Amino acid sequence: MIIVMSSKATPENLEELTGVLKERGYDAHLSKGVETTIVGAVGALPSAEEKAAFMEQLETLPYVDRVVPVAKPYKLVNKQFHPEPTVIDVRGVRIGDPAKVIVMAGPCTVETPEQLHASAQAVKAAGAHILRGGAFKPSTSPYSFHGHGEAALKMLAESREEFGIPIITEVMDVRDVELVCKYADILQIGTRNMANFTLLKEVGDAKVPVMLKRGMAALYEEYLQAAEYIASRGNYEIMLCERGVRTFETYTRNTFDINAIPAWKELSHLPVIADPSHATGKASLVAPVTKAAVAAGADGVIIEVHPYPSRALKDGAQSLEPEAFARLVRELEPVAQSVGRTIR
Amino acid sequence: MIIVMSSKATPENLEELTGVLKERGYDAHLSKGVETTIVGAVGALPSAEEKAAFMEQLETLPYVDRVVPVAKPYKLVNKQFHPEPTVIDVRGVRIGDPAKVIVMAGPCTVETPEQLHASAQAVKAAGAHILRGGAFKPSTSPYSFHGHGEAALKMLAESREEFGIPIITEVMDVRDVELVCKYADILQIGTRNMANFTLLKEVGDAKVPVMLKRGMAALYEEYLQAAEYIASRGNYEIMLCERGVRTFETYTRNTFDINAIPAWKELSHLPVIADPSHATGKASLVAPVTKAAVAAGADGVIIEVHPYPSRALKDGAQSLEPEAFARLVRELEPVAQSVGRTIR
Amino acid sequence: MIIVMSSKATPENLEELTGVLKERGYDAHLSKGVETTIVGAVGALPSAEEKAAFMEQLETLPYVDRVVPVAKPYKLVNKQFHPEPTVIDVRGVRIGDPAKVIVMAGPCTVETPEQLHASAQAVKAAGAHILRGGAFKPSTSPYSFHGHGEAALKMLAESREEFGIPIITEVMDVRDVELVCKYADILQIGTRNMANFTLLKEVGDAKVPVMLKRGMAALYEEYLQAAEYIASRGNYEIMLCERGVRTFETYTRNTFDINAIPAWKELSHLPVIADPSHATGKASLVAPVTKAAVAAGADGVIIEVHPYPSRALKDGAQSLEPEAFARLVRELEPVAQSVGRTIR
Amino acid sequence: MIIVMSSKATPENLEELTGVLKERGYDAHLSKGVETTIVGAVGALPSAEEKAAFMEQLETLPYVDRVVPVAKPYKLVNKQFHPEPTVIDVRGVRIGDPAKVIVMAGPCTVETPEQLHASAQAVKAAGAHILRGGAFKPSTSPYSFHGHGEAALKMLAESREEFGIPIITEVMDVRDVELVCKYADILQIGTRNMANFTLLKEVGDAKVPVMLKRGMAALYEEYLQAAEYIASRGNYEIMLCERGVRTFETYTRNTFDINAIPAWKELSHLPVIADPSHATGKASLVAPVTKAAVAAGADGVIIEVHPYPSRALKDGAQSLEPEAFARLVRELEPVAQSVGRTIR
To answer: Does ipTM come in above 0.90?
Structure first.
């Protein structure tokens, strides 16, 4: 770490600091400048926990201006220590494969057997690899529809059997992890739960592939640490997912951070999925933003499709009709090819 | 609700829409303009859930440009239907009383019996009404310190006995709510869990006073709906808490949204607490921002105090030393008086 | 416009409001609901100015809760009134042509004749259509390099002659508009000047094509009104440009709002250019984000290229070397083709 | 500055870097760690301009991970080099005096002689020290009212004579600086022009006191550099002004950054003014936020007052009526006293 001294620091302060550092096993290297002195502190505290606390403690010293960390606060999901891309095999669908782009699609919420059946049939026919559908739904309002729970999970499993397509569904409650794992091929952690650390640990223990959505105001570094929570319990089958961040703009539901896609590929070895439905909130913008995500290097996309958006119980405004979805998949193939990949 | 028609809408579209509205029990009032037609739809769907879904469905109609809600999406915490301020009595401490300002203080995290004892003694002596201290701590890093759990809860309860001061502590996991309720006088829901709806329901069932922190990118309307989750389970003893929002500024840890204090008092009858420690992240800014919060009408403040900030395991940089805290309480009294209240 | 009455509004208030509206030439249509009454006000004030002021005045009435505008506040740049895309012809380069993607490239700042010559030669050889280069440079610090002014404009004009490539350059000062127009084929308005209304009027009078960059925290609606300023003076040759917005993320210099590209194509008929160099601030992210922008429907891109980034006087960290730029152009052609366009 | 080496840097790279640094007059101090090496570079380039460019150049080197600046990029407005607070005397009104809080008030825009006269009379009677009023008004829409220009300046000067109250008014166009200086006691630079560097230089040359509003998405460091632009031309009579920043919240017009007040007092010696009218956009929130600003240490406030807000041509919704303003000033005096100051 780097310690920038206050401009008022005295030689005695410097000596004291050097002593504190030595005591904790750090070597101090001084760079004295005209206005300030910089101390490079090199060493290795036994744990990241102690390191973080120690840095905060140093910052409270009156003669220290600030402490700048040097190492990244995540290891297991860091590309630096694991340069090869992680490929997750979900019933034969390879997510993260440099030659493939994966399409996940389906309704926001499982509403009825008919609605799910029609959705599954349509997305499978159009070329989707994985079926999405919500059984447990987070809702801003306590009075909104919260999903059919296990009944919906059973319907999803039936669609998997009928159409031969793996399923992804959200888990919100630590007490439901076991139940959802009985049915789901991929667990989804929603944006509101990105920093629900007890849930992260639980899915880390579950050893089922997880798609972790970025929190709506999460820094890359915080987000990758959330993934590290899951990895730190021994579950390395993690997909990152950009679903738009919250900004001042109100025309769209969120602002899709396209920079995140190549940035996360640079920082981590985990597959990156894009969610243009939530990132835009508008059906008319889903197709161009999906193409953009694939051109930027996304390993997959997840798209809301509903047989009758105008009767959807949730997120109708951002859902594609089956026909529009099929057209998007057709148009996406040349985009995937233009960056050396294929959807097929 | 108000439905703004697309500029391309035909008279047939309008007729169709009117039919749809009637079918669902709404009366339609048309305002035809030069460029657009507006439809005022008045009626009452049996539940807010159906209403929200219906509005989303209308927005997917090709001849509808947008749907503007008129009513606020929260009722129980809405001042309009409950004009009197809620006062919460916690072992004789009245939170929300128009004549009083409540001070909560203590360490970020309960570290050792000695540290907590010194903290409790200091904050009580300085005039604090409620002791804070973390037993379960959310941490961005999986490798950081996560609190001593029940052992810390016991220490807090001991300090309550010794110093006669009620205690507030955070609960993060739905499975811990029962345990924490055995010790705590006030449950704290942290900023990362504001939209952890399963936790909100659980503390709603618990019938123990709750301080709900605003999510770091939560709109007022979303935040008040989170409070509504708790109220909808029958627990009306809820305190709102502004702890800073995430913006582009990096000099401070967060940006304290002072507007929120009078705005929430306008929108809701719940008491409003300010957290200047997290909102600034810098001990040097805590005192002025605390005074600002009280001048703006906050019903209370919650402040991190540590006997030795430079040895704190967490949040040392934003913790006040006991002496600085005592000075702040002394200086706060005239500010409280200037707006017709008192800390004493 | 739509007027939402306060829940405390009396029938007398409603009558008064109706009178006020009639007086100003508006017809009022009432929709009385259980909780609130909505008034649809239809009419046409002679000017947008009076309309805006009138809406604000209505909002100050104690019995009015809020006023919701219905019409968009821009006309000349609004796609609704001008559905055909605008194509701007700059010395034979057609910007906005549905079959073409335009590449603008060059150094952030014109430094020396040699540097500009090497840059112009390289970007022309790689296939760029337009040469960029700063003569007047905005700088956060008063002590930074601010450009060579007219000397740089002359060098740009020489490169245009030598390589047969039109030039784009920024104008910052109203007093320089005439001078810059003598040399430039396209005037650039920088992000910090998006709401410099006196400058917008001046370039509106200049009748030279303008590329207007979005302000770093500008709403779509504000941005399109800034373009309307230029159009309102009779200059319709305007390009929109997304260059990233300011968010909480710090890994990248800005957050590229990819949603903006299809959204602006939906709202306006003006060509849309993407600036991945400023939007990312990192050379390693420029290529994937450029491809994303083209896949999302951008009509062109503007990219910083420097013969020796590590010796650049400005923005070296986000500049591509000539070789990397040439590779990007080669890789961009299949992406353009995948959405039915070409760079050639 | 501190240079963090890439984890892939070789000893040869380090040697090369040391050579580059020496060549430019820097001493390099190495701290070799397990994962990374840190280089502290100490020296003094002749100008800040060269320093900034040199740092950017270093960042482009493939073996450099990042460069961390140590010194603040502003000098003249930096408290470190000028610990005494700046006090600006405007016709006997002392702005920045630790014992006083200054109140500026008046209409957003000068509309008519009657409106200004009524406003001036009211604010003077209530105890305001300085009269505000817009002659040149920035407007998001080209079709809105843009102010009466010189006619309004004359009316302001007449009010100054009649009521013995100095005046503040905005200048937007470099070509108007001379004209506005003929009438104004304080020049206001609006939020949209904070980074209009040509205008900053012009008012820096003008040697008239300037109130510089913070840009709506400006970092403290950028803002203080904008002030440095003015100071670097020899004009040291600068007031900082927090007027709210743009965030995701839409209930209020902006989010008032109360942290900024004590933070700027910590970083700079310049007086700090608060603008609660623009920061909230709602008359009902102006009084509590004004009190908060004074409690946090603001040296003054600027408040919009209009004799008939419901007929105002601009910003009516955030303007106080004279009676409400007079009540606010009365209520503000005890708040000022609670922090050791007075309005009188």
So the answer is: yes
